[in-house]
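Risk register update: the risk of archive-format incompatibility is retired. Evidence:
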Amino acid sequence: MKNSKIALFSLMILFAMSFSQFAFADSYSDAIDVFKKSSVTKSFFNKCYGYAIFPTVGKGGIGIGGAYGEGQVYEKNKMTGTVSLAKLSIGFQLGGQAFSEIIFFQDKRAYSEFTSGNFEFDASASAVAITAGAQAKAGTEGATAGSNVGESKGGQADIGYTKGMAVFVHTKGGLMYEAAIGGQKFSFTPK
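Archived output:
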């Protein structure tokens, strides 16, 4: 029984990694362009200290799940390094999903905290979805359902920074029902 759980867990991680890297390959500039065109995130580019962009994050799970994505970090519009996103979760979840993610840093303190090496969002951190049909608030611990039918035009009042960071996701495809425990972990490597 223990070996089958380990095998299932390994399969979910491999699925999330391959879903992220191969199924929905996008360039960084394409992902940035999606967020720059969104009326929800456009103003953040003009006011932020920096940001991290993940063109594709793949997520999958059956009871035990995982997510993985690779990105780049920018300080004042200059790329300063690469970052990987990993998430492991345990709980009621089923399905697979791909999405783009951007994290805006309000100031140098938030940027420095994120790029200090390893950073993790706590279970209460949440992201705002910029696609219609997706939940307006999608926590890093789960509770998401995805579609990709365009930009959402409302229902997102009070969008701002929390602890110096603002997180937005753009669902690319897939469907996942999840009510799981676990936060996103980031590992930064300077350029």
